[in-house]
Design brief:
The protein is an all-alpha fold and about 350 residues long. About 35% of the residues lie in helices and about 0% in strands.
Length: about 350
């Protein structure tokens, strides 16, 4: 099986190499056009019940007659059209390469000219993404890319610091380890995006859609996430010190071990959120919905913070903290010793 796979891989590479040669593409186009004409001719004679071959003809003679029957002046136009169409299809790989090369030229020229907003660059980036070209390590700090559509793009390790990506479509994009410090991502669509270890320090993410996005270990210190949708988002060990999360939707979000020192979570929805071992010193939980939130093991959490929230009696706490809050505590199970 391994040898067969290797053979197929080599064969495909050889065919690709041959298709890079102009003369081979032209010859192949002529052969394809001729075979198609031969097929159409056979079907036409069969429909009209006009056999080209006679009963006494050998198989080779029959083939020659069939092949020669299409060589006529009346067929030149049809043959030319079929050959041109075949050649056009065979050159699709070459056209794709040229399009990609030209797109990168547009991007490089805009960067060299220090142009902040270039609609040609936006279109070029969208075209590259549609062609499945990786945009890994893209270096466009401060670029104006608002409303760009880069859904599913590979932007791993990209440098987009202070870039304008407002209203951008980055659904399912790979932005792991990307530099997005101070970037404007307000109202951006980042649903199911991969932002692991991304630097979003001071980024503007107001109203952004981060549903089921992976932000584990990301640095969001000082970022503005007011009104953002973070439902079921993964924020494990994320740095959220001083972050604005007012009115944000954090339903079922994973915030285990997250640093939320001085974070503004007022009026946010934390229903079903997992905040185990999170650091919440000076975090503002005023009117936050804590229904079914898991706060067991949360660090630097005060009674005053919790009681300023809504539905705090329906959250989960450590046993000792339940006592401080005056909540009922289940009796500890007694350990029975057997002699």
């Amino acid at each position: 099986m391994a040898k067969f796979t290797w053979f197929i891989s080599k064969l495909r590479q050889k065919i690709r190499d041959l298709l890079d040669l102009v003369w081979f593409r032209v010859l192949l186009a002529i052969m394809i056009a001729y075979c198609l004409m031969l097929t159409f001719s056979y079907i036409e004679h069969w429909n009209k019940q006009q056999p080209v071959c006679k009963s006494q003809d050998s198989l080779l003679q029959c083939f020659y007659k069939q092949a020669l029957s299409i060589i006529a002046l009346d067929n030149i136009e049809a043959f030319s059209i079929l050959a041109a169409a075949s050649l056009y299809l065979l050159e699709s790989r070459e056209r794709r390469r040229n399009t990609i090369y030209q797109a990168w030229q547009v991007i490089d020229n805009a960067a060299a000219a220090n142009v902040s907003t270039s609609y040609a660059r936006i279109k070029a980036l969208e075209d590259l993404n549609q062609y499945g070209v990786s945009l890994k390590a893209l270096d466009l700090p401060g670029a104006g890319l608002n409303e760009i559509d880069l859904a599913g793009a590979d932007l791993c390790v990209a440098n987009l610091c202070v870039a304008n990506l407002s209203y951008a479509n980055l659904k399912q994009a790979n932005l792991s380890d990307a530099q997005l410090e101070g970037a404007n991502l307000s109202r951006a669509r980042l649903k199911e995006a991969n932002l692991k270890f991304a630097n979003l320090n001071g980024a503007q993410l107001e109203g952004a859609n981060l549903t089921r996005a992976n932000l584990s270990n990301a640095d969001l210190g000082g970022a503005n996430l007011s009104g953002a949708d973070l439902q079921s988002a993964i924020l494990v060990f994320a740095v959220l010190n001083g972050v604005e999360l007012e009115i944000a939707n954090l339903t079922d979000a994973k915030l285990q071990g997250a640093q939320l020192e001085g974070a503004d979570l007022s009026d946010s929805t934390l229903e079903g959120a997992d905040l185990k071992n999170a650091y919440l010193i000076h975090a503002d939980l005023t009117r936050a919905n804590l229904k079914n939130a898991d706060l067991r093991g949360a660090q630097d959490l005060s009674v005053e913070q919790i009681k300023a929230a809504n539905n705090w009696t329906q959250a989960k706490y450590d046993r000792y903290f339940c006592i401080e809050l005056g909540l009922p505590v289940e009796p500890e199970k007694s350990v029975q010793h057997h002699s």
